[in-house]
Every structure is written in structure tokens, then in C-alpha cells.
Design goal:
The protein is of the alpha+beta class. The chain contains 16 helices and nine strands. The chain has a five-stranded mixed sheet with strand order 2-4-7-6-5, with helices on both faces. The protein has a two-stranded antiparallel sheet with strand order 1-3. It has a two-stranded antiparallel sheet with strand order 8-9. A hairpin with a 4-residue loop joins strand 8 (287-289) and strand 9 (294-296). Helix 6 (93-101) packs across helix 7 and helix 11 crosses helix 13 (209-221). Bound molecules: 8-OXO-2'-deoxyguanosine-5'-triphosphate and calcium ion (2 copies). The site of one calcium ion has 6 residues, from loops. One calcium ion binds at residues 2, 180-181, 189-191, 193.
Amino acid sequence: MSKRKAPESVGPNKAFCEFLLELADYEKNVSRNIHKYNAYRTAASTLSRHPVKISNGKEAKALPGIGQKIADKIDEFIQTGKLEKLEKIRADDSSQAITLLTKVFGIGPATAQKFVSGGITSIEDLQKNINKLNNQQKIGLKYFEDFEKKIPREEMKSLEEKILKTCHKLDKRYVAAVCGSYRRGASESGDIDILLTHPHYTSTGGKQPHLLKDVVKQLEKEQLIVEQITLSETKFMGVCRLKEGCPYRRIDIMMFPEDQYFCAILYFTGSNLFNQQMRAHAVEQGFTINEFCIRPIGSRGTPGEPLPVTSEKDIFEYINYPYKEPTERNI
Ligand code: 8DG
Ligand code: CA
Ligand code: CA
């Protein structure tokens, strides 16, 4: 999966969304406070969907997911045109360096901090210290500029067509779908997330490692996949390119048993925030959902047996949640 990308900051409250997302990034990468990160992102998501420009913190606080502290920041921003906290962060070289290094695929916040403490603070520094990088990070560095580029929907469509065609050339029974932001209708995506299943592969029927490997091998033969990062029975991470002249793109292919396909497609369609909210609702209704299955939670708090699922809608119905089309899951 790609680095968690910011929800789009658009609309009349764009300026607020932008500073909230910048604060969110700081909390994730530098302070490593995932709760604050989630709080800022939830607030930004709410504001990006609010149709009118808010004029003070109090108005913002009346919206879901915005508390007093964020309301205060909005007031400060409206009154002074800036945020002291953000000014400090921007002026701090080490915070800026950590934020930069985490943009490299394979470098997480902890590794970025380690590099920065060791004096490695730029992309050039990474290039000079290749020996300190693992395989995944080397690939992240090699394709740094391309991976920063968003993939236009048209290119996503062409990639989808090619990959599906390849799968079906191997075996008509493969079922494959591009999930992630593409399935949510995004005009551009950060990477390609493919979900793959096959009727011969079920959660009780044993492993079928060749099913994913065959697809990867064939896509390599067709020169679509150009680099492997990891390949297991169930997950491939790598690099692909539609054709010469196009940028290199990050691609994930996840293989799921047929009976878990719909929980998987729900999970990998996202958005991440949508999943969080849906899972929270599920728990309130006495269910637990993950990328494999939905299970009722028993009286002692332990999950029971997975429930039968034959569509995404089934999952929504179990937990009494109004069905949302993928394009309505962009929160
Ligand atoms: P993008 O690639 O266009 O930036 O957006 P995306 O397709 O929504 O994000 P992604 O990082 O490629 O992840 C694909 C889906 O995986 C995402 O929509 C929801 C699901 N997912 C979660 N939790 C997490 C998580 O913690 N990390 C990642 N990478 N994906 C997650 O529900
Ligand atoms: Ca991804
Ligand atoms: Ca994606």
C-alpha cells in the first residue's frame, strides 16, 4: 500500500484542511502520536466536505470530529493568518528532514528519525549511504521521483485492463479488481491495489501459492511488472510501468480466498477513515470486521465463527449500516 495519503483538501475550507493535514503529518512522522494524527485527519476530512466556509472555531466545533483544541487552532489561524505551532515545525530542520525522508517508500518514521540523528537528512545523503538501506528502501530511493507522482485515472484504467487481460489469459476463473482510491472513483491515485481470487483457493482448502506467482510471472514477462519488492503466497509488492515513457508505479497484488473476497474488497477499497468508522459501528452492533471476515462478538467479548458473506452489501446489512457505494466512501 502506498504511504497514507492526505485526503483531498478542497472546498471553501481548503486553507484549514491544509494546515490540519500538515499538522497530521507532523504527528505521524515526527511525534509519532497516532491519536493526534487521526484527530487532525478526521477534522480535515470533515472540513473538506463542509459546503460553506466556517468563520470561527465555535462553528467548527459544532461539526463531527472537531474538538476544542482544533477549534482553538482555527481561531488562531483566522485571527493571525498563521499557526505558531506550524511555524515552529517549519523552522525546525530536523522535523523537515524526517518528513522528507518518510516520503521515500520503505522509510517509516522510526527509520527516518534514525537517519536524521545520524546526519542523513536529504535524498542526496541517502544516495551517498546506499549501503545503509534495505532492499525495499533502495527501490523507494531509485524511483523516488516517479513514486511521488499521482497516477491519472486514465492510466489506472489502462493498467486495470492489461492486468485483468493477463490474468484471464492464464485462467478465465481468476477474479481481479483494482481497489483503493481508484475504486472510490478518484481522478488520480497514489498506487495500484489489486485484489485477486480464484475459486480453487478457499480459506479451508489449503494453500495455492502458484496462483499469485503465476500472475506475477506473466506480468513480468509482459514487462508490466519490472521489480519485485516482496512476494509471498498472498501478497506481492512491486513496481510496474504501463509502457515506455510512463512513470514507474507502485503496485500491490493481494491474493485472498474466495470466501473472504468481499471482506477483503471492502477493506482494500477504504478509505482508511471510512474503514475505521465502519469498524467502530460494527463493534457497537456486536460484530468485528477485518480484511478476512465478519464475526459476531460473544457475551464474553470473544469473536465467534465467521459469518457467510456473498457481497459487500451483506457486511453492511449484518451491522445495520446504510450501504455506501465505493464512490461514497471517500472520507
Ligand atoms: P492512494 O493510493 O490513492 O493514495 O489511496 P488509497 O488507495 O486509499 O490508499 P492505500 O494506502 O493504497 O491503501 C489502500 C486501502 O487499504 C485503503 O483505501 C484502505 C486500506 N487500509 C486500511 N488501513 C490501512 C493502513 O493502515 N494502511 C494502508 N496502507 N492501507 C490501509 O483500511
Ligand atoms: Ca496501496
Ligand atoms: Ca492505493
